[in-house]
Amino acid sequence: MKTYNAEIIGVGTELLLGQIANTNAQFISDQLAKTGINIYYHQAVGDNLKRVKDSFKQAATRSDFVFVTGGLGPTEDDLTREAFQALTGKHLVENKQIIEKISNYFDKTNRKMAANNRKQAQIFSDAVIIQNQVGTAPGMIVTYQQSLFIFMPGVPKEMKPMMLNFVLPYLKENFQLKNLIKSRMLKFIGISESQLETDVKVLIDKQENPTIAPLASDGEVALRITAKAENEIIADQLIEHAENEIKELVGPYFYGYDGTTINDTVLHLLAEKNLTIASAESLTGGLFADALVSIPGAGKTFMGSIVSYEESTKSSVLGVSEQTIKTEGTVSDACAYEMAKQASVKFDASIGISFTGVAGPDKAEGKDVGTVFISIYQGENRVLTKSFYFPGERDTIRNRTVKKGLELLYYWLIE
């Protein structure tokens, strides 16, 4: 069975300037994966006739399907039609039905149709028209050399119905698309990306179908398993087999799938064990509390937090002993321990967790920027206090500290 390769081109200078995110490409990629079409390239090109033309020319040399969004509007900087015409020499003709539709649209909204709106009715003579049920600019499907170009508006609310209601059915009917591509994300914490890749290298080296790809985010890593199959049942079987092989190698670091976060997992474990938690935060300044309370239902397990940033508040508000602060300092394991204990006591929580350290820009108490202490207190017989060093900018250090705290809690709770 023939496999088809596709790419997506977003036309619009606003994409390059970062004024809007190219969510169209994400949506189209997700939909195409379900049909078994390989997505090999994403492009974004500004409103420049030559560059748009060049992007089309390059796409035609390597892709069976080229999805183009944007540049179909009525203004001078909407150049998609013109660029494709310059490349192919195809004729543009004004479609009477589309002109009537555009005119009726303006009549219904009590607005006058400008002359340049007629541009939106310019259709390539050999194109299959994609009706726009939401806006005025139609889409088009046109063949050039060995490639099928699918032109759609850049406005997501116009593009998505076209994709779902016309383009996908058209492709399935005309190209006998029977395969699908399915992915599953396995998420890990407490292991570096390089170590994870090393540990599963034997699987990556032999991969064919499904494929395994490592991904990293701040403080945690993931493996994406992607299978191509005739149906979901077979795809799931392929993914399940790969997952079992992966877990045999790095299972102890696995904590969840796909959209699950370590925040979700920690809260779920706390609730499952009927435990509550409170925090005392210095350098993190409430980031840990925010990480938990941003999850619906957190109030059942998260009791509260004290942000004791300044030295005096650690003693006067939180209750850290002045002797500890005087002899050990606020950036110390002793201070972290007392902060965690006081958080547990003051909020009557099963567990207290604390964060203290130096986020910068300058050293503090002789400690380097990036020095961090985290403590977990669950009664005098169960305490963990650890020190870490996180290089980077201030916000990086603070975010890494919170993620490390969640990691420690996760392993604390599954023991």
TrEMBL record:
<protein>
    <recommendedName>
        <fullName>Putative competence-damage inducible protein</fullName>
    </recommendedName>
</protein>
<dbReference type="InterPro" id="IPR001453">
    <property type="entry name" value="MoaB/Mog_dom"/>
</dbReference>
<feature type="domain" description="MoaB/Mog">
    <location>
        <begin position="7"/>
        <end position="173"/>
    </location>
</feature>
<dbReference type="InterPro" id="IPR008136">
    <property type="entry name" value="CinA_C"/>
</dbReference>
<comment type="similarity">
    <text>Belongs to the CinA family.</text>
</comment>
<dbReference type="InterPro" id="IPR036653">
    <property type="entry name" value="CinA-like_C"/>
</dbReference>
<dbReference type="Pfam" id="PF18146">
    <property type="entry name" value="CinA_KH"/>
</dbReference>
<dbReference type="InterPro" id="IPR008135">
    <property type="entry name" value="Competence-induced_CinA"/>
</dbReference>
<dbReference type="InterPro" id="IPR050101">
    <property type="entry name" value="CinA"/>
</dbReference>
<dbReference type="InterPro" id="IPR036425">
    <property type="entry name" value="MoaB/Mog-like_dom_sf"/>
</dbReference>
<dbReference type="Pfam" id="PF00994">
    <property type="entry name" value="MoCF_biosynth"/>
</dbReference>
<dbReference type="InterPro" id="IPR041424">
    <property type="entry name" value="CinA_KH"/>
</dbReference>
<dbReference type="Pfam" id="PF02464">
    <property type="entry name" value="CinA"/>
</dbReference>
